Amino acid sequence: MKNDDRIPAMKFSKVYPLYVEKAERKNRTRAEVDRVICWLTGYSAADLQRQIDTESDFRTFFAEAPALHPNRSLIRGTICGVRVEEIEDPLVRNVRYLDKLIDELAKGKAVEKVMR
Predict the structure, then answer these.
(1) Domain boundaries of the chain, sorted by first residue
(2) Residue pLDDT tens, the chain, 116 long
(3) How far apart are CA 111 and CA 3, in angstroms?
(4) Pfam families given for it (predicted)?
(5) How far apart (Å, rounded) are the C-alpha atoms in residues 53 and 100?
(6) What is the C-alpha separation between 34 and 48, in angstroms, rounded?
(7) What is the pTM of this model?
(8) Taken in order 77, 82, 86, 90, is the CA torsion positive or negative?
(9) Rounded distance, CA 6 to CA 9, Å?
């Protein structure tokens, strides 16, 4: 998993617009993206914006998350050809959980179903 080595240092603020763009291409909204991210991490909307503004990397973004949702372990499936539930590194697994949630949102799944 060579790409996984780079994930912790990636800037959340650089990836976030890509999440929003992906969702918007499928007629979803930034508000829905934010709602899913806040559900996963426990951030408030203001705290999420602060993470974006300070250009936190994924390591910091998840380390400072107020309360990672206990149901995140229910997120199953593949992302980038890898089953998320089989990823050993907890940080990389959390990032891939987020990726999977954004994918599900973009594929038209109801926000309430995305947020297990």
Answers:
(1) 3-114
(2) 455 678 889 999 999 999 999 999 999 999 999 999 999 999 999 999 999 999 999 999 999 999 999 999 999 999 888 899 999 999 999 999 999 999 999 998 888 888 87
(3) 29
(4) DUF2200
(5) 24
(6) 8
(7) 0.90
(8) negative
(9) 6
Q: Is 102 exposed, middle or buried (0-12, 13-18, 19+ CB in 10 A)?
A: buried
In three state form, how does the secondary structure of 49-116 look? HHHHHCCCEHHHHHHCCCCCCHHHHHCCCEECCEEHHHCCCHHHHHHHHHHHHHHHHHCCCCHHHHCC
* pLDDT given at position 1: 44
Closest CA to 95 of 4, 29, 20, 27: 4
11: which DSSP letter? Answer: B
The CATH architecture annotation of domain 3-114 reads: Orthogonal Bundle (1.10)
Which pLDDT value is given to residue 3?
59
